[in-house]
């Protein structure tokens, strides 16, 4: 077991009193209330996050931060039937990565390690990855920049306090630091490992969450673009 995993597991198994202290926001050194974590996957490359965990720079553990359906451009939420034309393109990453259904990591300082366990539904396969956030990455999150924000039509001082993680087949996890009003900056790319426990942390007898008919049809026609992420 590597040092990163030992650190993460130690923090996440801390006494409840310690975890309660983590969540109250005391001792933060951030210029904003909280940072934000969210996930997305390439078009049609559907994924499901089992769990995500965080260890901050004060070695405090935050368990079950975010999980569930991972957002993607296609298939659309209300799509029905197999389209005659597939408009999405899963190859590569978008210039401005998006995410949906994220969560503010309340009470945490800047992250040191982020752990993600997820199902890649098109393969299907279960992966886990430890993403080490370096000091250089944290400085990007702390750097204030002037930006014209289209959201309210004003010049503001903003921070890249959103960490957006793209999850792709093959266990690929790519991370950007961004905000609604600043250009995203790619900060790292990590290749995860297969989790031998399988889906649902080994509690489903090997049964995966079902892939949508649209994504299944896309993969049957075009395949999975390994190597493009």
UniProtKB/TrEMBL annotation:
| InterPro entries hit by this protein | DUF2931 (IPR021326)
**Record's keyword terms, sorted:** Signal
- Specify one Pfam family: DUF2931
The species is: Pseudomonas indica
Q: Which residues form the signal peptide?
A: 1-20
What name does UniProt use for this protein?
DUF2931 family protein
